[in-house]
TrEMBL record:
Lineage: Bacteria, Pseudomonadati, Campylobacterota, Epsilonproteobacteria, Campylobacterales
Task of the protein: Catalyzes the reductive methylation of 2'-deoxyuridine-5'-monophosphate (dUMP) to 2'-deoxythymidine-5'-monophosphate (dTMP) while utilizing 5,10-methylenetetrahydrofolate (mTHF) as the methyl donor, and NADPH and FADH(2) as the reductant.
Record text on subunit structure and interactions: Homotetramer.
Record's cofactor remark: Binds 4 FAD per tetramer. Each FAD binding site is formed by three monomers.
Keyword RNA-binding: no
Protein name: Flavin-dependent thymidylate synthase
List of catalytic residues: 174 (involved in ionization of n3 of dump, leading to its activation)
Residues given in the record as FAD binding sites: 50, 74-76, 163-165, 169
Domain of life per record: Bacteria
InterPro entries in UniProt: Thymidylate_synthase_ThyX (IPR003669), Thymidylate_synthase_ThyX_sf (IPR036098)
The protein's Enzyme Commission number: 2.1.1.148
Residues the entry annotates as binding dUMP: 71-74, 84-86, 147, 174
Gene3D superfamilies from the UniProt entry: 3.30.1360.170
Catalyzed reaction equations: dUMP + (6R)-5,10-methylene-5,6,7,8-tetrahydrofolate + NADPH + H(+) = dTMP + (6S)-5,6,7,8-tetrahydrofolate + NADP(+)
UniProt gene name: thyX
Length: 208
């Protein structure tokens, strides 16, 4: 999995929004330590977390499974633009068979699938991938029908935009050791991709 922060709102947008409430612009230090502390105090300590919604982050996420994508889509408020199976399943049509299930073919399958810490599950995922490949390349089934045979482990690629308040909720829930392991990995990757000067707003959200 790869997560890149493509764009983000400068912190002073949030501090200026907060200062609008009290008309305290004269106390701003131009986005320095005072303004950063103000965002944390009002948004995190005093729980006026709607002020954090002025901060937006735009991520590119590569290699997330479709199963994890379902869990990610439950988080609000966020916007997702996802790789379309209708237009991109052709990537499997010219690929050679993934059978037999030997070391070489399992390694080849990792281009398309997220593997987990269970060999039997991985093997069944590769068999599902092979069935999908056969539908597309040997039976000429249209992508819109063939996609119903896609395994949950199939990798996808998306643009993901989320505000700071919603991101805090995501990191809190998905960094827990009770969360799906792939979602734990995603939560950490999202945090790590944040600009360094923004991470202080989210440090207390991480469970481990």
């Amino acid at each position: 999995m790869e997560v890149i922060c493509k764009h983000y709102t400068p912190l002073d947008i949030a501090s200026q929004a907060i200062r609008t409430c009290w008309q305290s612009f004269e106390y701003s230090d131009g986005g320095g330590c005072k303004d950063k502390e103000l965002i944390h105090r009002v948004g995190n300590i005093f729980r006026h977390s709607s002020t954090l919604e002025h901060l937006y982050y735009n991520f590119e996420i590569k290699g997330l499974s479709r199963g994890a994508l379902q869990e990610l889509s439950r988080h609000r408020i966020a916007s997702l633009s996802v790789k379309s199976s209708r237009y991109t399943l052709r990537e499997l049509k010219e690929v050679e068979s993934f059978l037999p299930l030997n070391e070489t073919n399992l390694e080849r399958a990792k281009e398309f699938l997220v593997f987990v810490d269970n060999e039997r599950v991985n093997a069944m995922s590769v068999l599902a991938l092979e069935n999908l490949r056969v539908l597309l390349s040997e039976h000429n089934i249209k992508n819109d029908l063939a996609k119903y045979a896609m395994p949950e482990s199939y990798k996808t690629h998306l643009a993901y935009s989320i505000n700071a308040r919603s991101l805090q909720n995501l990191l809190t829930l998905r960094s827990s050791n009770k969360a799906l392991k792939e979602m734990q990995d995603l939560a950490k990757a999202l945090f790590d991709a944040l600009p360094g000067e923004h991470q202080y707003l989210f440090e207390n959200c991480l469970k481990h």
